[in-house]
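Q: Here's a chain of 127 amino acids. Please give me its 3D structure as tokens.
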Amino acid sequence: RGVSIEGILGSGIGSTTIENGRLIINFRATAQKQSLLYRALERLPDVFRVDAYAYDDQRLRAIAIAKLSLGPKNLNDDDSYAIETIVQTSTERVVILNGSPPALDSALTRFRQQNQLNDVVMAYIAI
């Protein structure tokens, strides 16, 4: 209760991997609930390290794959995020965006307001 999990991303988890796996949990919570979850994760026997990052931490990066309608709108990136076209059809374009979470949220909000955003999947990583 009181924790809203928004996404889970795993890497290096499997019998064929060389290194220990990594699990990134993106969630919203009060400071008290975050602290409680942090302590609970630290106590798990197979967890080696727990790191917490604020939404606007410079080490945190967001990656999004979005399906955008084609139109007269400009899809150029700005200084706060980068955008690259993966594939394009006559009606839409699939792009990958990366940047800080606030920058990507702002860009996706703008695409949504311009009725260009058809679908999106996001993940967060710490660098």
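Q: Can you summarize the key feature?
A: Helices lie at 31-43, 101-113.
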